[in-house]
Amino acid sequence: MPGNALIAVVDDDASARDALVDLVRAMGFGAAGFRSAPDFLGSKLLPQSDCVIVDMRMPGMGGIELYAHLCASGIAIPTVLVTAYPDEATRKHAREIGIGFYLSKPCDPDELLHCLAQLRSR
């Protein structure tokens, strides 16, 4: 997946978003950060995105809602849901609706790289 792949990072926390964008780029991927789900949905980069890493809790539309919106729109983008407040019920729900991975913040680089490789191979 590295090289031409573009990973979208959607997080309302600027420092978390910037850190994830930097980490993804250090792994050899292209990356673009968005401060909200509507910003990502309105971006010209949406159709070019190979994967989205999205925060679960954001004002307005959170990560699960963004994923549901993308699916309802017929846009199947592999998704990694990240959260500072992990819980098993949310993890289970995310997996049931098709979200590829559910990670705790801050993301472990090796775990994130594994997730991105797995999503790309699907």
TrEMBL record:
GO terms for biological process: phosphorelay signal transduction system. Gene3D superfamilies: 3.40.50.2300. Pfam families: Response_reg. PROSITE patterns: RESPONSE_REGULATORY (PS50110). The modification 4-aspartylphosphate is found at D55. It comes from the Bacteria. Keywords: Phosphoprotein. Signal peptide: none annotated. Residues 6-120 form the Response regulatory domain. This is Response regulator. The lineage of its organism: Bacteria, Pseudomonadati, Pseudomonadota, Alphaproteobacteria, Hyphomicrobiales.
